[in-house]
Every structure is written in structure tokens, then in C-alpha cells.
Design goal:
Layout (H helix, E strand, L loop, with lengths): L13 H13 L10 H12 L20 H19 L1 H9 L34 E2 L4 E2 L11 H19 L2 H4 L5 H4 L7 H10 L21 E3 L5 E10 L5 E15 L9 E13 L13 E10 L15 H6 L5 E2 L18 E2 L3
Parallel strand pairs: 2-4, 8-9
Antiparallel strand pairs: 1-4, 3-5, 4-5, 5-6, 6-7
């Protein structure tokens, strides 16, 4: 084979051989160079990483959140809640329980000297200051059909049950000692024991026949109400009773600010607090002798503080001055604690309120 002959038998010109030899000595401009050790190491690491593809034009890869950041936030919120509870527990109870919180006593202590009630602010320094006024403080549940009554009939019965509480514990005439005719008209006239009670209670009050068992009354010659507002808190509940009757239970606390009837003096204000529990039965006329639109009283009881002690007179008799100091020997009770059952018993009739 000749010197200028290719393997396929073709030949090259002298000029081509000369250029080939010259480039072999000088090296081609685009000939690959041996990479350095550092470059080989970087290339090796790049080949070991997974290929994630090109990043999009408007894409954003968020930073991975630290694992425990959420727990730090929860801890901070819990600390804030504990701080609020410590500073204002009563507010927290009212927030979650609503207006009728049956909690063991709302926040606060007996009124300090600077928080005594005044004629313009008779509820000053009292938990009742934040309560609703009058009938607005008596919660009525949503009506549904029960026993012999449809939902609409239950709704009317609940409204009349509250009407009885208004007529017996909030009516201004009744509070001034008048006979509670509107309230009596709602009681079944065929219920003999209650009718016997009503026949004698206002004429000759006694422990057995005391009008205060059902009605709040003050003797106008001795006591007068301060302002036009009575604070209330309570509720109605209901269920099916005997013979398919609608049985309504009322548990309501009334707070009455009063002062001496006589003009002048030091305008001492006392808050009489009465909590009543009444169980009323709206009976089926086909099964029980009753009058339409009336209920029978199944049971009734009450607790009272700052309402007087001694023999029944048919009136609440708040203690003023030296009489009030004499009553301080009684058992201490918190009249705002609605978590306890109603009815402390005869031995605690003269209980002393830790606050009013």
C-alpha cells in the first residue's frame, strides 16, 4: 500500500498531508482537553443528583417549614387563654355558657366601699349588674311537640309559663303588695290544694300558707323599690310528664334593689335576692280535670337572702341598719351560685349573703 493511500484505496494530495501533520503537532483548536481533578469531582457530584427538570418560568418552590413552629404557636395561644381566664374568669364563663351560666358563682367578691350601690346605680358592685332586665333574663327553649301538645301548643304553654313568672315576680303592683290576680288566673282553678293555699295565704300568712312561696311582695309602708329595673337570670325547660302532660320547670333568680320607704335618711340600699324553682304541669283536659289555658303546680320552692327573718308576714322584709347587722350571724351563702339545687331548708331561712 502506498504512503498516500487510505484504507479504502483513495489517495490524498500532498497539501492535505502537510496540513494534517501541522495540526497534529500544534493540536486542534476544538480538541477536548483533559479535565482537572476539581472539575472531575464537581461533575461526579452533579451526576449523583436527581434530575428535577428545568424550573418553570413563574414557578415558586416554598421553603420547607420547620417542624416545630406549629407547636410554638399552639403554646403561645394556650398561654394567652390561661392569662385571660386568670384575669377575668367570669367573662370566660359567660362567653361559653351564655346568659344563663349555672356556674359556681360568677367572678367577683363582695362589693368594696367604692362599689356600694347608689340610687342612680342600684346594681353597682353586684354580679347582677351584667344580667338582663325583667323578662329578658328568662330563657325560653325552642318548642317541639310533647305528649298531647303540638309544637305550636307547647310554644304557647311556654310563653304563658313565663307570663306567670313575670306576673308573680316582676309585676310592679304585686311587688308593692297588691294581690297577684294575673298570676292566679293562670293556675288551674280545679287544683284544690293550691286554691286552699291562695284562699288563706294573703289573709293569714303562716309558714304553711305564705304568699312568698309563689309571689314576691314588699310592704309599701316599709320598703320601696329603687328604680324601675329588676335583674333576672334563669331558664325554662320541659319534658313529657304524667299522662302525656307537658311538664315545665322554671329556675329563675330575681334581684330586687330596695331602700326604706321613709324619705330622707342615709338612702341605704339592700338587694333582696330570690331564686325560685317551679314545676308546672300543662295537663290533657281529656285525662285531667283542668281549665283550658291553665296549669297545675307540681312543686315549688325558693331560696331568699336579704329578705328578712322571723315569723311570716306575707312580705319580703329586707333588713336595714341595725337589723341588717343582727342578721349577720346566719349561715353564709352565695346567692349567685346557681350550680347548687334550690331549697336550703327551714334551718337556713336567715342565711347571710356573702355578696349581693
Amino acid at each position: 500500500m502506498g504512503a498516500g493511500t487510505e484504507p479504502d484505496g483513495s489517495s490524498r494530495s500532498d497539501e492535505e498531508w502537510e496540513r494534517f501533520l501541522r495540526e497534529s503537532v500544534a493540536g486542534a483548536a476544538d480538541a477536548p482537553k483533559e479535565p482537572s481533578a476539581r472539575a472531575r469531582d464537581v461533575a461526579k457530584r452533579l451526576r449523583a443528583q436527581p434530575d428535577r427538570g428545568p424550573e418553570g418560568w413563574r414557578s415558586y418552590t416554598p421553603a420547607r417549614p420547620k417542624r416545630r413552629t406549629g407547636w410554638y404557636v399552639v403554646g403561645l395561644l394556650a398561654s394567652l387563654v390561661l392569662l385571660v381566664v386568670a384575669l377575668a374568669p367570669g367573662r370566660v364563663v359567660d362567653l361559653f355558657a351564655g346568659d344563663d351560666a349555672d356556674s359556681p358563682a360568677e367572678a367577683g367578691q363582695p362589693a368594696e366601699a367604692g362599689q356600694r350601690p347608689t340610687m342612680d346605680e342600684p346594681f353597682r358592685g353586684s354580679p347582677a349588674a351584667s344580667w338582663a332586665s325583667g323578662a329578658a333574663g328568662i330563657t325560653v327553649p325552642e318548642a317541639r311537640a310533647v305528649g298531647w301538645m303540638s309544637a305550636a301548643e307547647v310554644e304557647r304553654a311556654l310563653a304563658r309559663s313565663r307570663d306567670f313568672l313575670v306576673a308573680s315576680g316582676l309585676d310592679r303592683g304585686v311587688l308593692r303588695g297588691e294581690r297577684p290576680e294575673k298570676a292566679i288566673a293562670l293556675i288551674n282553678p280545679k287544683q284544690k290544694d293550691i286554691q286552699d293555699f291562695l284562699a288563706t295565704a294573703f289573709r293569714t300568712p303562716s309558714e304553711k300558707n305564705d304568699p312568698l312561696l309563689l309571689f314576691s311582695r314588699f310592704q309599701p309602708s316599709r320598703t320601696r323599690l329603687v328604680g324601675d329595673v329588676v335583674k333576672t337570670r334563669g331558664r325554662l325547660t320541659y319534658r313529657e310528664g304524667e299522662r302525656g302532660a307537658l311538664q315545665v320547670t322554671a329556675d329563675v333568680t330575681f334581684v330586687y334593689p330596695v331602700t326604706r320607704a321613709a324619705a330622707g335618711g342615709d338612702d341605704e340600699i339592700v338587694r333582696t335576692i330570690v331564686r325560685r324553682e317551679l314545676v308546672l304541669s300543662w295537663d290533657d283536659p281529656d285525662k285531667v280535670i283542668t281549665e283550658p289555658g291553665t296549669f297545675s303546680i307540681v312543686s315549688n320552692k325558693y331560696d331568699m337572702t336579704n329578705g328578712g327573718c322571723g315569723a311570716p308576714t306575707g312580705y319580703l322584709t329586707p333588713p336595714f341598719g341595725t337589723d341588717r347587722r343582727a342578721d349577720e350571724a346566719g349561715t353564709e351563702v352565695d346567692p349567685y351560685d346557681r350550680s347548687t339545687p334550690v331549697g336550703r331548708g327551714a334551718s337556713d331561712e336567715c342565711a347571710r349573703a356573702t355578696r349581693s
